[in-house]
Amino acid sequence: MTDTQVQSPAEEALTTAWLAALAQELDGARELREELHREPRVSGEEQDTTSRVTRAMGIEMVPVADTGGIGRIGPTTGPAIGLRGELDALPVREATEVTWASTTGAMHACGHDVHLAALTAVVRAAKQLELPYGLVPVLQPREEAYPSGGRDIVQEGMLEQFAIAHMIGAHVHPGVPVGSVATGSGFVNAAAGELDIHVSGRGGHGAYPHQGSDVATAVAQIVTGIPETLRRHSDPMDPALVSVGTIQVGSGASNVLPKEGRIFATIRTTSSTEGRRLAETIASFAEHQALAFGCVAELTHTEGEPALINDGPLVSAMDAVLEDLGLEHTEPMRSLGADDFSFFSEAVPSVMCFVGVEGNGVSLHDPTFLPNEDAIERVARTYIAGYLAGARTLKQSRHEAR
């Protein structure tokens, strides 16, 4: 057993005091969760949410990424551990029947209200304690939309400004057993991007196809050929996918040959490098396929999030701390989904974990998704576990450096 897996007497005392202080904050956290849920703000419009959470935490915050905030408690110098809380809601019309349901046409259907309430309780409880390292709450905007709030926070130099050595993210998930937290080192989420393929040619009359270009057929052939292109040009042991979400061609008339069409798709890979390579391959395929029908195809690849990678030593430390806090660590959750927490994990050793909640048979982003209030404490304990794991790792690295 390594030093990062053993709880020292000082850490045991800190943990006991932190959990006792947390218990006193949970009622207020539940009220805050309901307030945030009742009045959600979508991506790019999170100023009110940031203000409410900042007031509830009772600490000074520095504006970040337009509508977010970042602060620090504990030691004012030296390394710190960052805890990420997402601010934004989704443009989803809520279909729950709770008295505090949103009626604005937006909804916290991804649990961000729970994360923020839990983070607030953790910070308020921690203000009463003597922490070994700084604790930095990161109120991040635009997790659900581009341009990414996580990317902006990293590019604005906030990790360096606040001396963040590790970042911790926690996300509720109905696919994880209640009482468990899914951690797991290595790959967690995909590198994501968007492919926009524009196909153009000569328009014309449907009765005289030889006088025009067959844009519609070219679009169809490109769409149906992308999966085979992926199959032949990617390692079968290295997952990659392209899902076409939008096809636009023609104006509704049956006898008009359209002069342009568009294919809009998402691309997911296990690394940004592989995403760029496959995008170039698909661009070449689309160009040649369009040429066969007298058309021109141009592909624009917009890169999104990098792959989200959990740090191995930090995960090992966190798994041990979770057990100390009465939570089980379970099988990792890995998918070709994407989360802009990956910008943090690309910059500093980090852990993104998933906290089990009751889902009532529905998934994230469903208009009836509503974790019960017990989820707040479980997420709060997970944040605390992440901080303590980061502290153990920092202590160990400093010891080894001597």
From TrEMBL:
Give yes or no: UniProt keyword NADP. no
Tell me yes or no: is Manganese among this UniProt entry's keywords.
yes
Q: How is the cofactor bound?
A: The Mn(2+) ion enhances activity.
Give a GO molecular function annotation for the protein: hydrolase activity
* Cofactor or coenzyme needed: Mn(2+)
Q: What would be one Pfam family of this protein? A: M20_dimer
Keywords in alphabetical order, please: Hydrolase, Manganese, Metal-binding
Chain sites annotated for binding Mn(2+) = C110, H112, E144, H171, H365
Could you tell me which residue ranges the Peptidase M20 dimerisation domain spans?
A: 194-290
Q: Supply the SUPFAM superfamilies for this chain.
A: Bacterial exopeptidase dimerisation domain, Zn-dependent exopeptidases
- This chain belongs to the protein called Amidohydrolase
